[in-house]
Amino acid sequence: KMAADTSVDILQKVLENEILQSAKVVEEHLDAEIQKLDQMDEDELEHLKQRRLEALKKTQQQKQEWLSKGHGEYREIPSERDFFQEVKESKNVVCHFYRDTTFRCQIMDKHLTVLAKKHIETKFLKLNAEKSPFLCERLRIKVIPTLALIKDGKTQDYVVGFTDLGNTDDFTTETLEWRLGCADIINYSGNLMDPPFQSQKKYGTSFTKLDKKTIRGKIYDSDSDDD
Questions:
Q1: Percent composition of the chain: helix, strand, coil (DSSP 3-state, to 5)
Q2: What is the rounded distance in angstroms from the CA atom of residue 168 to the CA atom of residue 184?
Q3: Which spans of this chain does the record mark as coiled coil (predicted)?
């Protein structure tokens, strides 16, 4: 028992030493930063201040530019022609191909409305699949809802139905945000290696088969290849 106690004591001392060493490193780093600031003359401090102000101004300008291009809100576009124009002027675009009669499209709408406000670096659009047969054919969209994720004018990825979102109608906005983050279509601050739906208790319970309805003679099922 004494030997075991001694081992515990040694481990505790090692651990305390590690913590002290880490604290010392942090403290030294802070001291160095403070010293650097102390040694700066007024001109250098002014220069630093100007640089930070410029960075702030640039961020604000970028934000205004995004807003002027229709970012920050989830919008419906009336036609295929509008799609090409919208995609051309923004680096990151999420476009929801929907149908009025599909209940799951309303679920997708709810989450996209929230994300459009949060991620103004990305443009969020919706387009009626029945009014855009050429695009659906070209992008091989066969499951409704499908999100086309477009970067620099090219379709990079698709979110087809709810398969990637935990296979449930009850997926959270965070789950969709995570999936868009995986595609690098939004600036995602969470951990991509840790999907939010893994911690959901109701994982997969209310998933039912995606409805397959025919649009203008075409069956929409589950092919999502890129063009």
A1: 50, 15, 35
A2: 23
A3: none
If you classify domain 67-183 with CATH, what class do you get? alpha beta
pLDDT in tens, 63-76: 999 999 999 999 99
Cα–Cα distances (Å) from 155 to 54, 117, 151, 172, in that order, read 34, 22, 6, 25
- CA-CA-CA-CA torsion sign (99, 104, 107, 111): negative
Q: Angle at the Cα of 86 (from 161 to 150), degrees rounded to 5? A: 45
> Residue 145: is the preceding peptide bond cis (ω within 30°)?
yes
**Cβ proximity of 216 and 141 under 8 Å:** no
Provide the residue ranges of all domains of the chain, joining segments of one domain with +: 67-183
Rounded to whole angstroms, the Cα distance separating 125 from 80 reads: 12
Beta bridge partners of 126: 76, 96
Distance in angstroms (rounded) separating the CA atoms of residues 212 and 97 = 15
DSSP 186: S
Yes or no: say if 40 and 34 are a contact pair by the CB < 8 Å rule.
no
**How many CA atoms does the CB half-sphere of 90 hold within 13 Å?**
30
Q: Tokens in use for 47?
A: 């220069």
Query: What are the angstrom distances between the C-alpha of 70 and each of 21, 75, 92, 132?
Result: 51, 8, 12, 21
Instruction: Kindly state the tokens that stand for 144.
Output: 């409704």
178-225 tens-digit pLDDT: 999 999 999 999 999 988 876 654 444 443 334 434 344 443 443 333
